[in-house]
Amino acid sequence: MAWDIEDRVCIVTGGAGLLGFQFSKALLEANGIVCLLDIDKSRLAQKESLLEAKYPGRCLGLSVDITDEKAVVDACKVILARFGRVDVLINNAANNPRVEKGETKNFSRIENFPLAQWNDDLAVGLSGAFMCSKVFGSEMAKQGGGVIINISSDLGIIAPDQRIYSIEGLDEDQQPVKPVSYSVIKHGLIGLTKYLATYWADKGVRVNSLCPGGVYTNQPHEFVDKLSSLIPMGRMARVDEYKAAILFLVSDASSYMTGQNLIMDGGRSVW
Predict the structure, then answer these.
(1) Domain locations in the chain?
(2) CA–CA dist 89, 105 (Å, integer)
(3) What gap in Å lies between CA 228 and CA 155, rounded to an integer?
(4) pTM for the predicted model, two decimal places
(5) Contact in structure between 126 and 189 (CB atoms under 8 Å)
(6) Comparing C-alpha atoms, which of 135, 147, 130 is closest to residue 195?
(7) Each residue of 212-260: pLDDT tens digit?
(8) Which helix (H) or strand (E) holds 37?
(9) Smallest Cα–Cα separation from 34: which of 64, 54, 53, 8?
């Protein structure tokens, strides 16, 4: 079957996170082998244990700092020693940008956004994706094929509507916003997708990106209502609604698709 990925070795960065775990489950359900890469050791051990219990021998968790090239190279060696090949890379890892407040300033706002935070966010979300693509993608090119998926966002194609984060009664310089680093990283991943798709096309490596919309995780009702009003379908995504898209992109069902960006945002970017 075109959707079956039997015994294909799949790497998911940020594999212990909210969507990374869902992506891993989708790959395992389709008979794949999954290597979860995550810097959070305790969360990684928990998620690996859950998956290993259901899919024994088909899941490997590795604690890896993807901003460290040596750590990524070492992880690749471990995976090759264990499974013999690399077939799929999902660049999903990212910092979770949070609003931070000082005594008088909101540090999510661009006027106050710290350079150190900018550098940290780009190191994980963009440089980390480049590093993993460089190491694991090169291995795919050597073996004559593979798939890379970059997880972008609806905010990789549109600007954030900062009104949905506003809090009544706060002065402008205190109003929370979506940090600039998030948008830049998610736009950048689409550029990386197009570059790699053409770079390795003759090696049989397909590269595409996915732009998911916001996932409902019990956020405050006011925020959910504001965001939902911007989405034609009138709601945020359920946590498991991107699994089929991931399976389509990594499997032979999308065998003639490369360099493309799959948008799955409930229609938000249409308005």
Answers:
(1) 9-270
(2) 39
(3) 15
(4) 0.96
(5) yes
(6) 130
(7) 999 999 999 999 999 999 999 999 999 999 999 999 999 999 999 999 9
(8) strand 33-38
(9) 8
Q: What is the CATH number assigned to the segment(s) 9-270?
A: 3.40.50.720
Alpha helical stretches, state H, 84-144: 115-122, 128-132, 138-143
pLDDT grade for 103, boundaries at 50, 70 and 90: very low
CA distance 267 to 270: 5
Hey, which residues does 90 pair with through a beta bridge?
12, 149
Dihedral sign for Cα atoms in the order 88, 149, 193, 69: negative
| Overall average pLDDT of the 95-108 stretch | 64
DSSP string, 161-223: -GGGG--TT--GGG-----HHHHHHHHHHHHHHHHHHHHSGGGTEEEEEEEE-PBPSS--HHH
> What are the phi and psi torsion angles at 159 (to 5°)?
-80, 150
Angle between helices 180-199 and 115-122 (to 10 degrees): 30
**String of b and e for 61-78 (b: at least 16 CB within 10 Å)?**
bbbbbbbeeebbeebbee
Residues 9 and 86: beta-carbon distance below 8 Å: yes
For residue 213, give the amino acid letter: G
Cα separation, 23 vs 240, whole angstroms: 8
pLDDT digits (tens, 9 = 90+) for 148-201: 999 999 999 999 999 999 999 999 989 999 999 999 999 999 999 999 999 999
